[in-house]
Amino acid sequence: MSNLAVVLSILFLSISYATSVPTQENFMHCISTQFSAYTKTFQIIYDSNSTSYTILLQSSQQNPRWVNSTVIKPLLILTPFHESEIQAAVICSKRNGLLIRIRSGGHDYEGLSYICRTLFIIIDLINFRSVDVNLKEETAWVQSGATLGELYYSIAKESKIHGFPAGVCPSVGIGGHFSGGGFGTLVRKYGLAADNVLDAYLIDANGRILDRKSMGEELFWAIRGGGGGSFAIVLSWKIKVVRVPPIVTSFTVSKTLSQGASNLVHRWQYIADKLDEDIFIRIIIQNVGKGNQKTIQVSFQSLFLGRMKRLIPLMNERFPELGLQAKDCVEMSWIQSVLYTAGYQKDNPLEVLLDKTTLYKSNFKAKSDFVKQPIPESGFKGIWERFLEEELVFMIMDPYGGKMNEILESETPFPHRKGNIYNIQYLVKWEVNEEPNKHLQWIRMLYKYMEPYVSSSPRAAYVNYRDLDLGTNRKGKASYKKASIWGAKYYKGNFKKLAQVKNEFDPDNFFTNEQSVPPFPSLI
User: Fold this and answer.
1) 437-450 vs 377-387: helix axis angle to the nearest 10?
2) Displacement of CA 130 from its chain's centroid (Å)
3) Distance CA 302, CA 281 (A)
4) pTM check: above 0.85
């Protein structure tokens, strides 16, 4: 860093500190006058002098890349127990010109749930974690601070024949996951998590508590896939729990390049989205080995909603090249398959799902794509060559089809439906003490290489795999025209409607971040 940059950085931080002191005092005075009947207010506010501040700030930062970031730290961290405390925080933040970051699980890929470029507070929903399952109605109310693991655990404790279609990582927070769509191993059978939301309670930019009826269908549409942090603070979600068989079958078959992995991946593209909707087979690609032994490994990981005796004939008919055998398969309950897919042993106690700590946590950068036409074998050859240049990289390919083909692009803000064979997530990871730039350059190079093989006009991306390389809102000015560059990638033709909903419910753009939806019309 140049001497000038250092001086400017110190000057900026000094100004920020000088500004923050009276702002903090004014905020605290404001919040003491709001909803004062609720006695826990001052037990849930932590400033930088609190011994719990740093622990709270870092406790759910799932990407350590941001732990030592030089950006502004939150003025205060709030861990509310009651909705009135969140209402107070919204009202007092608006009065004092503070931005808000809402954190449910801390998994935002670019850290937008806990970092900001100007003075802000964090509302951490760690105490909003209840799950109430109603088997008679086949529904559940789940609060936004709960994790996917807590949701799955709660359903499994009530029933062996119910589950929910959401992601594979148990420590992911409900709030962000549902807000972006949310998909996992049941996506081909039941669609997204957001497709199975029936109602919600939220706090809007004016501090009002609204449900589906009082918020109206436009806002209810927007919060189910329009991305977190743009429209409101969703407190809880009413979901439809879905039926699963008492016994399911999982398998993981891994092959290296010398074992024909390249041909198998190429063939998988032609059948993955066309299989029976009870079959989900995703691909995980990574480099393995060291030195001259370094190569590419491709793992075919599957969940089948049925017994092995039905699965193997289906696989022999549709994907005989994989050579699936009984010894590759494991029968288990659906909740055990959740453990299995997440990287645990299927016989681990279910209580591991309650752990908010992410397995294999490390610094990372991610990108995403959607594929509409099979990538030729020559395209994969170029991927392998680039993979061997890096140390710890992954491509995860999740198939669509099935239920996803039945839902219109406009039904929710998540538009990536019929016509998409699969989604790709690219990941590069590195150690805490490593310089990140070479790894960031590598994944950007891979992303550029993939351009001819993936969706175009726009080149689509998944908002829950947040990528600020696609573009950001300017500090203090949200331009609809500029935001449309990245907005079209995440939401395609739904972006304009999202901006219109934003203009109706948050015209002053109180809920804002680097990739939040701006109001329409806006400064263009």
Assistant:
1) 170
2) 20
3) 4
4) yes
Neighbouring residues of 301: CB distance < 8 A, sequence distance ≥ 6: 250, 251, 252, 281, 282, 283, 284, 341
CA distance 355 to 339: 12
Counted residue by residue, the chain has a size of 524
Q: Which two tokens stand for residue 224?
A: 């189910």
Count Cβ atoms within 10 A of the Cβ of residue 3 and give its class: 0-12 exposed, 13-18 middle, 19 or more buried.
exposed
Please tell me the distance from the alpha carbon of residue 262 to that of residue 298, in angstroms, as a whole number: 8
CA distances from 409 to 417, 484, 491 (A): 6, 17, 9
What's the rounded Cα separation, in Å, for the pair 425 and 418?
19
Radius of gyration of the chain from Cα atoms?
A: 23
Contacts of 47 (CB under 8 A, 6+ apart): 24, 53, 75, 76
Distance CA 175, CA 519 (A): 22
> Which residue from 45, 65, 50 is spatially nearest to 122, judged by alpha carbons?
45
CA distance 163 to 173: 17
Q: What are the two backbone dihedrals, phi and then psi, of residue 306, each rounded to the nearest 5 degrees?
A: 170, -175
Reported as a single tens digit per residue, the pLDDT across 24-75 is: 999 998 988 876 555 454 579 999 999 999 989 888 777 878 776 667 899 9
Tokens of 470: 């696609």
Please choose, from the candidates 243, 251, 399, the residue with its C-alpha nearest in 3D space to the C-alpha of residue 312.
251
**pLDDT, tens digit (0-9, with 9 covering 90-100), for 393-425:** 999 999 999 999 999 999 999 999 999 999 999
- CA-to-CA distance for 476 and 102, rounded, in angstroms? 19
Q: Choose the catalytic residue: 153, 447, 453, 465.
A: 465
**What single-letter DSSP state applies at residue 432?**
T
490 catalytic per annotation:
no
- Give the 3-state secondary structure of residue 402: helix
* Contact yes or no for 498/226 (Cβ under 8 A): yes
Q: Residues 453, 375: contact at Cβ < 8 Å? A: yes
Q: What is the DSSP letter of 519?
A: P
